[in-house]
């Protein structure tokens, strides 16, 4: 009797087919819940602080615990999917993320909330790399660009709706329901993925063959030690920055431990047989420069979005819904014009957009200095956000195009993963360090006058980080145009990090 799978179970998927549409739905929901975890929480922070009578450092950790595990483990998550099956790890990430989200919603105290947020980030790190890798591995080459475009576009729409829905829930049933908002689509996605998404494993990174019974399986390695050391270094540095305002030996010990863990991470990556961040990839001067620019611009924008969501509610007096809706222009601009900016970078070269974009973005941040207790949305807030959004449009897609042009096609996914992790880590450190640098005390968010003064000191620092990024771009990037790459995806709405590119795709993808 022939027990081979039916042809439809192994043939490449088509967008027009039922299984292809279900697979797209699963990957969109999977990446969407991670975006919700990044964007929804910011508008809920003041209410979380009020309900728990918590200091500012609790609000910082509510954001950073999630960003920490997501940034530290995202490369490992991709490697686990490549070795054990992308659908398997994707579904594990969905269940993990949903359970952690429910724990956040049920948290009786701040310690439980922060721990659950860290678990949320682990789930996000498991499912985020798999969502695009599944599309790349499953769809017919002729349909793959369209599938990626749909995945990117619907993901951008989800990013736009996140703060709006989060604000509506915070003002209505309460902030705990923002985490239910993240859990429900993740749980709904599980049966869809199990039934319709085909399983796949990654192409081997080594030629070693391991005998398993009568069959041979190629080994796809992954760097657990490097991932743990990298996450530990980020955690200790973040803790040291967050607790530094109180001083003491614990903060100093954490800072020293972070430096030691970082040095150990670099040593492991240099000497490891299968490092998740091979040092050889930094031999490209342009790749290194793009990552330095990424660190600067995403540190600035990460601090901006964290503080602005608070500022609109604490100082201007907006409800959570109004604060979430106020930020929509940034995402809408990205959705409408990001692909055009990517094509512009291909024609003009990287130097112009990556110099001009951060400067325009920084100008928008400085315009936010006009936003005080009596601010008008149309005359004060909207112009600042439009200027900043324009700057992000000019710089985000060209940043990815330039990154991909700096490495071989075979390393596109690895380069994208490193760049994405760098952006998340920059935002993490920024949220930890900015309140310290501007003298924002633990009670600052309870006083509109105190927070307004601190916000006024923070915006020039954020703008300064973008100016440094612009300077690096002007001084290091070559004038010549980037190598032509097809742009598979016409929209992009992610504000908090650059788009991921599948590490096994043969296409250079800008979403």
TrEMBL record:
Coiled coil: none annotated. It is a multi-pass membrane protein. Gene3D superfamilies: MFS general substrate transporter like domains, Multidrug resistance protein D. Residues 23-481 form the Major facilitator superfamily (MFS) profile domain. CDD domains: MFS_MMR_MDR_like. The chain crosses the membrane at residues 22-46, 58-77, 89-108, 114-135, 147-169, 175-194, 220-241, 247-266, 287-309, 315-336, 348-369, 381-405, 417-438, 458-477. It is found in: Cell membrane. Keywords: Antibiotic resistance, Membrane, Transmembrane, Transmembrane helix. It holds the Pfam family MFS_1. PANTHER family: EXPORT PROTEIN (PTHR42718:SF42), MAJOR FACILITATOR SUPERFAMILY MULTIDRUG TRANSPORTER MFSC (PTHR42718). This is MFS transporter. It comes from Streptomyces bobili.
